[in-house]
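Consider this record:
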Amino acid sequence: FKDDYGYEALHKFFNKIGGYPMITEKWNDANFDWQNAYVYVDTHINAIKLFIAYQVDRVSLTDKTHFIIVGPQPGFHIGSTLISELYSNEDKMEAEIKFRKKVKKLLSGIGGDKLSDELIERDINALIEFEKKFASIEQQSEAADTGENFVLSIEEMQNQYKDTELGDQSIKEVNGFLRTIKDSLTLTINTNKWMDEETKQNAQLKLNRMLSYIASPSQVKNDEELDEFYKHLSFQLEILIGILLKPHFYLGAPLAINMAAIGSAVGHEITHGFDNTGSQYDEQGLKQNWWDKQTQRHYGTKVNCFIRQYSNYVEPKTGKHVDGNLTVGENIADNGGLHNAFNAYKIYGALKHPETDLKLPNQMSRFTKDQLFFIAYGNAFCSDNSKAYTNLALTDVHSPDDARVMLPLQNSKEFSKAFNCKQGSRMNPVNKCILW
């Protein structure tokens, strides 16, 4: 929202919901109807699920034909900037209880009959005790399983945007990238020494069965075909419109730049099908064990390598270690995405995109095409975050941006070769973690 159009659009949005006290000159609490604002925001931009939440989910992880609409517990938490100032569990619990009391008091007045502070405190304390007991119940399935619903969500606007903002050439080029990255992963699977032949065949079958959609499926324009599409959901990769923009994709840019940015992102998502969670599902998206026991042990050893490597990484701004266990799935995907994107870049360039004389101008002209690839990869993660945000990011399933660049590059033999990194140096350690 840095340009005039952005400010104007934001101003119109706030007017629609009744204003905003920080930017509205004559603000009056009595004139603000938070219920209308809530409904407008939820129905127009689908941005909040504070009091009411809903989603489509699978009936069972082993059943891909039946779906239900469920009402999960909505997100209901104190803002991250406030919670980051609290360090002890007691402080956080006290703040959470106070916050819930205020919200309950607000909601209790909707029908005109407000609850007393004593009744509110009793209800909140009972709720806290219930949540403590509920959290202690042992789950039979992994927590990650509950997030595995293969549901496609596409707004009408997305298809219209694709027609007006994305040319056929952009989609055609990214489609070519995707096919070549899958070819690269096929090569990786077939040439590795740690998998048995049957498991390789199962992995290849899963990769072959992976459906992919760029921007939106063609069926989105035809209601009947779209209904049929939803009846038979399967293992699929969706590349949404937002990633087909800078800094991930520049139409007409050197192949090294585009393949490094959007190619590694596409490779990242494909690799998720074979990370520590995705590897538990077969080619139909059903939870099945398709691994030979010995191969599975080799796989576990390689996964542990990533856990140790990332756990030893210290985020420079906070001085804290990355949680290697929490982030391992994303780290596997980052490394696999980079490795297969580089191989795809070499294959695609040799066959379809020679670029004999194409170089960047000025000082960037001194870099080779291979070096440009890795520079563009780092550029895609370029960010400048506050210490508070970085502290929060350390609790995310993704590693911090600097780790997502540095560690995959340290594991890349191709990077060390491109920049002539001496073996044993920081960017070319002797012990590397390699899986896909």
